[in-house]
Amino acid sequence: MRFRRKFFAKALLLLLIIALLGGIVMRLWNWIIPGLVVGAQAIDYPHAIGLLMLCRILFGGFRGHGGCYKARQWRHWQQMTQQERERFLNMATPKATSNSPSASRPGEGAGT
């Protein structure tokens, strides 16, 4: 029962935020754009919501990481030991091949 209540509260909060942002986008557009661009028209509320969604898709995406994804990554990195960090970095970087210049020169690389 508590799960349903939290779910509906979050859904309601999300709808209120979208409605508020849509109103802000509409007012900003109607205040700024018709004065700057010749031939630009004022937009109504549904167009403002559509513009908000379009901007979210183009510039923000729908990653679903939540608001503090980078903070969680940083905390996870801080909790790693030095060996775990080195192993992670070695997996993330491409391996040196015999054709690469650093592989042919001894004395250079991660071990020195």
Q: Report Rg.
A: 25 Å
Overall pLDDT metric: 80
- Tally of DSSP β-strands: 0
* Number of helices in the DSSP assignment: 5
Helix and strand element order: HHHHH
Proportion of helical residues: 55-70%
Q: So what's the overall shape?
A: flat
The main sheet comes to:
none
- Beta-strand portion reads under 5%
Q: Structural class from helices and strands?
A: mainly alpha
- Uncertain ranges: none
Cα distance spanning the termini: 60 Å
Task: Characterise the protein shown here.
The protein has 112 residues and is an all-alpha fold. It has a domain at 2-60. It contains 5 helices and no strands. The radius of gyration is 25 Å and the shape is flat. The mean pLDDT is 80. The longest helix has 35 residues, at 2-36. Helices cover 69% and strands 0% of the residues. It starts with a helix and ends in an 8-residue tail after the last helix.
What labels describe this entry?
single chain, mainly alpha, 5 helices
In short:
With 112 residues, this protein is mostly helical. The chain contains five helices and no strands.
Write the layout of secondary structure elements.
Blueprint: H1 2-36, H2 45-60, H3 69-79, H4 82-92, H5 101-104
Helix pairs in contact: 1-2
